[in-house]
Design a protein that fits this description.
Helices cover about 35% and strands about 15% of the residues. The protein is of the alpha/beta class. It folds into 3 domains: about 10-200, P-loop containing nucleotide triphosphate hydrolases (Rossmann fold); about 280-475, Leucine Aminopeptidase, subunit E, domain 1 (3-Layer(aba) Sandwich), CATH 3.40.220; about 585-775, HIT family, subunit A (2-Layer Sandwich). A hairpin with an 8-residue loop joins β18 and β19. The relative contact order is 0.07. It binds a DNA duplex (10 and 10 nucleotides) through α6. It comes from Zingiber officinale (Ginger). Keywords: Metal-binding, Zinc, Zinc-finger. This is Macro domain-containing protein.
DNA sequence: GTTCTAGAAC
DNA sequence: GTTCTAGAAC
């Protein structure tokens, strides 16, 4: 072990004796300045490794070229999926730079840090001397860069989410660490904690790791009661090493399954979550999401439920999850029971329950402090089923409390609402929190259903449960913080050692405390499920993505709400609220309404539309067909009555493509609309697919034409014919997606590189563009 | 929509 | 140090 190579090294490296179901993968985040030897460390470990490793290096992640952080995350996730362990080989000197990689942690995936904290002088001299460095950082300027970076250095801390941190401060430390990791067999597990840190002053905060059950509590008394306030945890590295390699810890890691099934075997196994009295177990009761009104396939749903439950239970002790349904004959309950038994899930931690979720305590004699609601996207009472029942029993106070937390909820996400104590659900049923969840809709009788797209549906349903459980955990975490604060204050005021606080705080009080510890929680927000593999939905749930309030942007509200009676609601809503447009967004509106004043730019004019060149073309050919109908500003305003206008505009666009193709037969075109237009007045983009233009300058430009932010005119016409309204996903995070070539789908770190690539890429455009006449070219379907 | 610019990343 | 992004202002 670095710093003290002999201590605990043998016990440090332990096999799991085949007890675990599968090998645990590792994410090892290297932390160090350029020249600290990160790549060499990876190479040395991988040369002698006893498990499969993948090195993810930002300098080469994009097909051998420098890539982006999100590409690194994608690449790391892919390696983990394959059961490989991953080195994150980038500087990672600041906490923020590490955070996204720490989020790769999940069941069967631990995240470690290896800090190559070598003398700055050494790093600099190595950086200056080297040649052919992947990151092109070498020679004279290296010294300055390394110095600057080291000034910002933030050494990693367990509270960031690492289960193990190894500090290396000299070559022999590095050698030891290389040995430790290279000897790690496929199912071996390294013990948790901080190793090799010389600085005794360094604070070690273990609260979060305890919460995540990733490390043992370093100190507990013989009675097994948690008597050590966080502030009293040993800061001395040696004592941490001793505690994490105790017999109890060995058992814990050797056979997690056995220990999960028995709280009594190892006192330290008891989680410190929430209620410190052991007679109450935090319990979340939840209905099956999406399988009633939204008609999600029961078998698939049962698989997802059990998988998500199983994942979650591996992380937490002293909690219970209960799936509730009204009828004994419930198919979903029996499917879940069957699958759960097959997966050997501890039935004391997860079980099904027949009864009314609003009367579990009084009628069912089942104490559940948190219940989930299968909510609608508007978070409104009414409708039917569980949602109506919960709002009815909880009374108006739940509506008010909900309004304080969120406006709307998108499928796949959830929001926690602390239940005021005056709610009957709180006083009678002892429920302190309701978590509203929205799942995917598979019911064709409802607008915007997923049309049997079970790939997307399963993804959304998984997200819904992950979000629900993570939010349940967040309640416990907040309560745990509250308890631990109280605990500390109790000890300091009375000096009675070992006192445990058994009172459960009033939820109003707790809500206030929560608001203090998490200011965003009570912020009124829309809650959107984020898309993109790099984001961990289960971690950030109450994320306000910066969308404008509903009354300022009808379009935004409309299509983000893609469920149930969203369309009707928006029609009503659209009548009373209109999006406001900035002065700069009025240009097309002005031209469309007064084309005679703009003869210099108008190339064609009819009663229905005008055609003009886009003032800032994003390709060789880029024209706009602008509707002249007043009040029709964007796709979200389009209804069946506009169908013929849309068709007329499409024909006009096609006419112009034919003219362009006569000039240059190699061009290919798409005709479509931006889901959220920047300029007022409905306008159709006719754009050649070369994207060869100096005006294409940023990510937003690219993604607005190369993600589902761009909707093909033909598809929209079809949708409006069928449903009377366009099915649009206006998630503006689409505009921030990684940059991918529209031909070969390769990812690129920035716009200049993407542009160099697309200038050369000879791959065909995706086959999907050949469907439904989305692509217009000189030789049809070519 | 663009332009400007601070600051992130290396 | 340079390159590039992303947010503010218009």
């Amino acid at each position: 072990m670095p710093g003290d190579p002999t201590i605990h090294h043998t016990s440090d490296l332990r096999g799991s004796d085949g007890a675990s179901e599968g090998a645990s993968s590792l994410v090892v985040i290297l932390v160090g300045a350029p020249g600290s030897g990160k790549s060499t460390f990876c190479d040395d470990v991988m040369a002698a490794a006893r498990r499969p490793w993948v090195r993810v290096c930002q300098d080469v992640v994009a097909n051998g070229k420098q890539g982006t952080k999100s590409q690194c995350i994608t690449s790391a996730s892919a390696a983990l999926e394959e059961g490989k362990s991953v080195f994150i080989d980038r500087c990672n000197l600041e906490q923020e730079q590490r955070a996204d990689f720490v989020r790769l942690r999940k069941v069967q995936v631990d995240v470690h840090a290896v800090v190559l904290d070598l003398p700055a002088q050494l790093c600099i001299s190595r950086s200056v001397k080297r040649t052919g460095h992947e990151g092109k950082l070498q020679g004279g300027r290296a010294a300055m860069v390394v110095n600057r970076m080291l000034q910002k250095k933030e050494l990693p801390n367990l509270t960031e989410g690492f289960s193990r941190i190894t500090f290396c401060q000299n070559e022999s430390d590095v050698k030891e660490a290389v040995k430790t990791y290279s000897q790690l067999g496929p199912s071996d597990i390294l013990s948790a904690g901080v190793f090799g840190q010389k600085n005794k002053e360094a604070k070690v905060q273990l609260g979060i790791m305890k919460f995540l059950k990733k490390i043992d509590k370093p100190d507990f008394d013989a009675s097994g009661k948690d008597s050590t306030p966080v502030g009293n945890l040993p800061h001395d590295t040696a004592s941490i090493q001793t505690s994490v390699t105790s017999t109890c810890s060995m058992e814990l890691e050797k056979n997690k399954e056995d220990l999960r099934n028995s709280n009594s075997k190892c006192p330290s196994q008891r989680s410190l979550i929430g209620d410190s009295s052991m007679d109450f177990v935090h319990t979340l009761a939840f209905p099956s999401i999406s399988t009633a009104d939204f008609q999600f396939d029961l078998k698939l749903a049962s698989e997802i439920i059990v998988d998500c439950v199983s994942d979650f239970l591996q992380r937490f002790d002293n909690i219970r999850l209960v799936l509730v349904d009204l009828s004994e004959k419930s198919k979903i309950l029996s499917l879940v029971r069957e699958r759960s038994a097959n997966k050997h899930i501890d039935s004391s931690k997860f079980f099904t329950f027949v009864g009314d979720i609003t009367q579990l305590h009084t009628r069912g004699n089942l104490r559940c402090n948190v219940i989930a609601n299968a909510a609608n996207w508007r978070l409104k009472p009414g409708g039917g089923g569980v949602n109506a029942a919960i709002f009815k029993v909880a009374g108006e106070s739940l509506q008010i409390a909900t309004k304080k937390c969120a406006d709307i909820l998108s499928p796949g996400s959830s929001v926690v609402v602390p239940l005021p104590s005056n709610s009957p659900l709180h006083s009678r049923e002892r429920v302190t929190h309701v978590i509203h969840v929205v799942g995917p809709n598979m019911n064709p009788q409802r607008p915007n259903c997923l049309n049997n797209d079970y790939v997307e549906g399963c993804k959304v349903l998984r997200n819904a449960y992950s979000s629900l459980f993570a939010n349940f955990a967040s309640i416990l975490e907040n309560q745990s913080k509250t308890d631990s604060k109280r605990h500390v204050s109790a000890i300091s005021s009375t000096h009675v050692e070992g006192t445990t606080i058994t009172s459960s705080p009033d939820s109003d009080q707790m809500a206030k405390q929560e608001a203090q510890s998490n200011p965003d929680r009570n912020k009124k927000s829309k809650v959107f499920a984020t898309s993109g593999a790099s984001k961990d939905k289960s971690i950030v749930m109450n994320d306000n993505h910066g969308h404008t309030p509903c009354n300022e942007n009808t379009g935004n509200l409309m299509s983000s709400a893609s469920l149930g009676d969203a369309v009707d609601e928006n029609r009503r809503h659209a009548k009373v609220t209109k999006r406001s447009w900035g002065a700069w967004a009025q240009a097309l509106h002005e031209i469309a309404l007064n084309p005679e004043k703009h003869q210099n730019v108008v190339m064609e004019k009819s009663d229905d539309y005008v055609v003009l060149n886009d003032m800032y073309p994003k390709a060789k050919k880029h024209v706009l067909v602008v509707s002249r109908l007043q009040g029709l500003d964007s796709l979200s305003d389009v209804r069946k009555e506009h169908l013929s206008l849309l068709k007329t505009m499409h024909s006009a666009g096609l006419k112009w493509t034919r003219m362009f193709l006569k000039e240059d037969a190699s061009l290919m075109f798409r005709l479509g609309y931006h889901v959220v237009p920047s300029m007022r007045q409905l306008h159709l983009h006719v754009i050649s697919q070369d994207f060869d233009s100096p005006r294409l300058q940023n990510k937003k430009h690219w993604n607005s034409f190369n993600t589902s932010f761009f909707r093909d005119s033909t598809d929209l016409i079809q949708e409006i014919e069928k449903h009377g309204v366009a099915n649009i996903n206006d998630d503006e995070s689409l505009l921030k997606m990684e940059l991918r070539c529209h031909r070969c789908r390769s990812a690129h770190p920035n716009i200049p590189r993407l542009k160099s690539h697309i200038a050369l890429c000879k791959a065909s455009l995706p086959a999907s563009l050949l469907d439904n006449d989305r692509l217009v070219s000189a030789s049809p379907k070519g």
